[in-house]
Amino acid sequence: MKQITASLPFEWPSRAKILSMVETLAIGTAGGLVFLLAGLPGGLISGSMIAVGIAAIAGRPLTLPPILTQTVLVLLGISLGSVVSRHLIQQLSAYPLTIGLLALATFCSTFGSSYYLQRIHGWDRTSAFLAGSPGALSQITILAVERGADLPGIAVVQTMRVIVLTAALPMVLALAGVAPSAAPSPTTTIASPLGLLALVAASLVAALLLRLVKFPASWMFGAMIGSSVLHGAGLIEGGLPDWVRGVALVGIGALIGSRFARMRIKTLAGHIHAALGSFTVAIAVSAIFVGVVALTTQVKFSDVVVAFAPGAMDAMLALALTLHIDPIFVGAHHLSRFVFVTIATPGIVHLFGRTQDDVDD
Hints:
This protein has helices at residues 2-7, 15-37, 43-57, 66-81, 86-90, 95-121, 125-132, 137-146, 151-175, 193-212, 218-232, 242-257, 265-296, 301-308, 313-322, 327-352, 356-360. The chain is mainly alpha-helical.
């Protein structure tokens, strides 16, 4: 009987894990609602992220199970795909130029941040390059372990960059007058029950196909592709109810904030200056390229800012949704950045980092 039970592919979560999940969602929801009621831009995702992050740093064991994380990403993808229109598709002609500039911006940002960490904070080259790479955190972590890099320091720098961007970017865009200072009133048409069923089915099928080929962020991009095809072809009108989109945004915020749950305060405090300094360098480099793109193309300034922001794909796409920014443009660029970082970072570390002999010693 014990052998049969051990071989089952599914295990019910323990009581502690369930309580941790409920606490995470409760704190995230409360934080998101406070920010939303205060009229802050990107309130649901920013409020949820900050509230959960503070609680996690304070020592609360906050976490979200994989099945809930995947559900949130699918809902986010469906919502992003539901805003596809012919106008968005017509802007595809600008992508080759801007993606090329994004590749250059990524390399410059990585080298600039790593140089800062080496010269100002005395980091070794391998750790500095891995911390300066924007995105692809799972691949960066694997490389850090293989090369004997400073994994806690890299985790703090990478996490702080996402946290600061997600919290500050909506307010910066609002103050600049290029994004709404508060969420607009809900006007999105809700798809019919049959349409909603088709959206979910198409999104899950596309996501599972992408997982088979190990496509990055497959749950979110698969759902986005499935939803985009149905809406772009005119087969379905409308999308998810506003409250469902709100749940997805709160979930993404809680997921980002929960990254601090396994981080000690001593570790965070020891690397906070390095994290903020390297972030400043990355933002300064990105701002130069944002200015070039804004001056040489017809793409909206707010779209360029979010597309070139060196943050996580899920967080930046969630901001695109809540700030009514072109999700196709932002998604294409952050996916391109992921590919750049995944392909180039191992080579950069091999050429410019510590040699493998030094690591082994």
